[in-house]
Amino acid sequence: MRNNNKIMLYILALYALLGFGSRIALADNNLLSSSTKKTVLLAPLFVDRLVPLSVDRMEEKEDARLVPIVFKHGDISWLPKLAQEAGWPQKTWKRLGNIILRESGGCPNRRGGDIVDKNCNIIGHDGSNHRSDSGLLQINGVNYDTSRNKWALLCRELDICEQAPLLDAYTNLVAGKALWDAAGWGPWNPCAWGPEHRPKSCK
To answer: Does residue 48 sit in the same domain as residue 146?
Structure first.
């Protein structure tokens, strides 16, 4: 009987190492002597201290990727990682960054005319009438609003048909990439706009 208990203990210890210890201990509770029961029920505690080391490291790595970006006006230190994830080629990042700084100051929640503080909090409006301009790249409503343009590229190709999704930094960069693929830097080049919007400084 003693040898049987030892064999059962070894089997249960093996199961415990595989993560099944607590369930087996409960299932076979009636087959074990009281001393063996105590040993087996402690096995998962022993395993918990040894096994999760690599799991913890994996979770820490995953958590690091999930840390939200803290956006501040004038700071685009986050851009390389986010631009890469959104599909922008590295050769475009410098110009992309300059456009973001010019258009929104790096504040993804900004709509046309919004005045922001250093932490990208909206604190006012400048009175202008271009509220459809959206997010980091100030993407204009003509690109997503089918009531203004029935061929709106972002609505047709990405199913982005309203402003709200474009106030997310990653979504805005993905949408911007679709516009860049279709028209290069034109959407952000005032001199490429129609005569009613083109600045006088353009030749």
So the answer is: no
In a domain, 111, yes or no: yes
Residues 62 and 93 in one domain: no
- Nearest-5° angle of CA 148, CA 154, CA 159? 105
SS (H, E, C) the chain: CHHHHHHHHHHHHHHHHCCCHHHHHHHCHHHCCHHHHHHHHHHHHHHHHHCHHHHHHHHHHHHHHHCCCCCCCCCCCCHHHHHHHCCCCHHHHHHHHHHHHHHCCCCCCCECCEEECCCCCEEEECCCCCCCCECCCCECHHHCCCCCCCCCHHHHHHCCCCCHHHHCHHHHHHHHHHHHHHHCCHHHCHHHCCCCCCCCCCC
pLDDT in tens, 143-159: 999 999 999 999 999 99
> What is the per-residue pLDDT for 12?
55
- Residues in Cβ contact with 119 at an 8 Å cutoff, skipping those fewer than 6 apart: 71, 72, 73
Residue 15 pLDDT: 53
Are the beta carbons of 125 and 113 closer than 8 angstroms? yes
